[in-house]
């Protein structure tokens, strides 16, 4: 074969993986998809994940099977994503808890920056402080006064060491100069139930976890951990309004895929998920859960994941937080 022709054939072979990925993305999806949700059924992440799965299924006409893989604050589910076939048909829900888990685990099963690839950051949200309705404290400022009057006498709950509820609670207590014991539970739903019963004083939770209980009157929201009120509960004042320090705890939810998933497939999935989440019915449902749309490219989401690992790694080392 003449050398020019040989060079052309070799060049075409070198380009073929990229061309194949482009072709695959153009047709994607042609079959059902699996969406790994690395938290238990019924909690905030599961509610969000199932809503995203529903929207994606409506958008594509393909079934999206939610696969709950629970353990290690999301790390076991992420490990399942990392070892899946990188063809665009397996992806997983990632939220702010899991980068923290990577830092505080002695031997994490994966490195989020290396073993999974960003697809899209869809939502962000502030946490909200909730107490049982019978508690005398009407605002988060009243709660601070209670804790300062009896240092160390009260406790707050979370879904485990290193979870957003734990970090938000620790930052809240530390920022106001109070003392309260942290009580970690295996599931956020159990911790919330103990707030309802009065076994722990409060919890700093994502609104998605507690919205129904607030609306039914079984819990009372007394403050938004952040600079402003949220649309889901506009009558609840923010920490800044109450004159309390803002611990700067902004949680987020996104989607990642196996690390080797071709960029064109991730870009297609990025677009489909954004479009489905923006559908009026889904956008309204997210708003009612205290969630806001998050903008940005998939590359920016990757940068966010790396920054979160660095930020919370420093905090958990300073606070000496360890996994249960």
Description:
The protein has 324 residues and is α/β, with parallel strands linked by helices. It folds into 2 domains: 31-124 and 251-319, D-Maltodextrin-Binding Protein, domain 2, CATH 3.40.190; 126-225, D-Maltodextrin-Binding Protein, domain 2 (3-Layer(aba) Sandwich). Helices cover 47% and strands 19% of the residues. The protein has 12 helices and 10 strands. It has helices at 3-27, 44-60, 75-82, 97-104, 112-115, 140-149, 164-175, 188-197, 207-216, 263-278, 280-288, 298-319, and strands at 33-37, 64-68, 90-95, 116-131, 155-158, 181-184, 202-206, 220-225, 250-258, 292-293. Strands 1, 2, 3, 4, 5, 6, 7, 8, 9 and 10 form a 10-stranded mixed beta sheet that branches. Strand 1, helix 2 (44-60) and strand 2 form a beta-alpha-beta unit. Helix 2 crosses helix 9 (207-216) and helix 4 crosses helix 12. The longest helix is centred in the first third of the chain and has 25 residues, at 3-27. The protein starts with a helix and ends in a 5-residue tail after the last helix. The model has no long low-confidence stretch (mean pLDDT 90).
């Amino acid at each position: 074969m003449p050398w020019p022709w040989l060079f052309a054939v070799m060049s075409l072979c070198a380009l073929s993986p990229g061309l194949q990925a482009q072709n695959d993305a153009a047709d994607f999806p042609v079959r059902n998809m699996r969406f790994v949700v690395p938290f238990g059924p019924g909690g905030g992440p599961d509610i969000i994940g199932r809503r995203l799965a529903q929207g994606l299924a409506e958008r594509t006409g393909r079934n999206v099977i939610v696969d709950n893989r629970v353990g290690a604050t999301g790390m076991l589910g992420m490990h399942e994503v990392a070892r899946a076939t990188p063809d665009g048909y397996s992806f997983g829900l990632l939220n702010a808890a899991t980068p923290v888990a990577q830092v505080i685990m002695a031997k994490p099963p994966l490195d989020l920056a290396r073993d999974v690839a960003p697809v899209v950051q869809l939502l962000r949200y502030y946490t909200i402080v909730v107490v049982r309705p019978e508690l005398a404290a009407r605002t988060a400022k009243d709660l601070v006064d209670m804790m300062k009057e009896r240092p160390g006498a009260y406790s707050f709950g979370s879904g485990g060491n290193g979870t957003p509820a734990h970090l938000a609670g620790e930052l809240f207590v530390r920022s106001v100069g109070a003392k309260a014991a942290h009580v970690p539970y295996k599931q956020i739903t159990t911790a919330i139930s103990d707030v309802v019963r009065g076994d722990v004083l409060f919890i700093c939770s994502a609104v998605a976890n507690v919205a129904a209980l607030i609306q039914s009157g079984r819990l009372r929201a007394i403050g938004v951990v952040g600079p402003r009120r949220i649309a889901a509960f506009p009558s609840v004042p923010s920490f800044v309004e109450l004159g309390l320090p803002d611990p700067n705890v902004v949680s987020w939810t996104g989607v990642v895929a196996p690390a080797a998933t071709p960029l064109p497939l991730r870009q297609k999935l990025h677009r489909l998920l954004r479009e489905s989440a923006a559908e009026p019915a889904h956008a309204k449902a997210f708003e009612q859960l205290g969630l806001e749309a998050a903008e940005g490219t998939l590359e920016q989401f990757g940068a966010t994941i790396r920054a979160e690992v660095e930020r919370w790694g420093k905090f958990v080392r300073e606070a000496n937080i360890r996994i249960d």
